[in-house]
Amino acid sequence: MELRHLQAFVTVAEELHFGRAATRLQLSPSPVSRTVLELERELGVQLFARSHHRVELTGAGTELLPAARRLLDDWASFTTCGRALGQELAAPRIRIGSPSLAPSDVVDQLASVLAELYPGVPVDVEFDSSVGLLAALRRRELDLAVAHLPVDDPDVLVLPLARYRWAVVVPSHDELARRAGLDPADLAGRRVLQLSRAVQPATMERLSRWLTDLGAIVEHLPDPDLVRLAHLVRHGRGVALTVMSGVTEQVFTQPGLTLVPMQDPGLGIGLGLVWRVADDGSRLVREVLPRLSRLAGGCPPGS
């Protein structure tokens, strides 16, 4: 008996059709039918009752199906564990992640610390939304991640690294553009355009509630497109609340737009180092945290 016999049996049992089962297995019907017959001969029982237009499990087939599924699950688990072990025994690499829109200096400092602690060990950096980074961290595809705060996930721990400096993006002809700085209350009654909540749900939800409490009219765009947001502000659709760092500052520094600094709203939104609870005592976490602690305490990104 081989793995292909179990795969054919389970797939035909799920489809009750040799043609559909063959499609799922990326084979033609004849090899699938032949493989099932081989299994029936080896077991000495008939697994399927076949007619010209119908395929049904026999009593023996129904009884054996759960055991066949368990064997396939065990094989998949064995394969996954073996590959994971192979990766651990391969040349070591450290995998870190950073939000695509975050200032580069924070993840650069993390990469620099890792290079000092582990000379000669490659550091791979992935860029994604905070949601995507946390999912990759849970799947053990990343060892550490920089993520937007707050993070609401019981499976990870967080070291706050930096708070953002805030600004309001307004059309250059807007009366707010002539101000040296803004108070949050200046947003009352204003339509404030925000990126999609999917970028970082916890952060965007906190920001939206705060803006609504101020009396602002919040409009969420369907995507995280900063360039589109800049166009909408320039053409008078509304204003935008943003952070003064990294890619966002570059996008909004253009003719027709003005970035006006705003005092810290005290929302606790910033960047933090995130790692799995299960890895809290690992060598990597123990050695990296003290080196990054000098960033904690509110150093603005990009400063």
UniProtKB/TrEMBL annotation:
State what protein this is by name: LysR family transcriptional regulator
Organism the protein comes from: Goekera deserti
Thylakoid listed as a keyword: no
**Listed GO CC annotations:** protein-DNA complex
Family, per entry: Belongs to the LysR transcriptional regulatory family.
UniProt entry keywords in alphabetical sequence:
DNA-binding, Transcription, Transcription regulation
Q: Per its UniProt record, what Pfam families does this chain match?
A: HTH_1 (PF00126), LysR_substrate (PF03466)
Taxon lineage: Bacteria, Bacillati, Actinomycetota, Actinomycetes, Geodermatophilales
List the InterPro entries.
LysR_HTH_N, LysR_subst-bd, WH-like_DNA-bd_sf, WH_DNA-bd_sf
Q: Which domain of life is it from?
A: Bacteria
Enumerate the GO terms in the molecular function aspect: DNA binding; DNA-binding transcription factor activity
Q: Which Gene3D superfamilies match?
A: Periplasmic binding protein-like II, Winged helix-like DNA-binding domain superfamily/Winged helix DNA-binding domain
Q: Please state every residue range assigned to the domain named HTH lysR-type.
A: 1-58
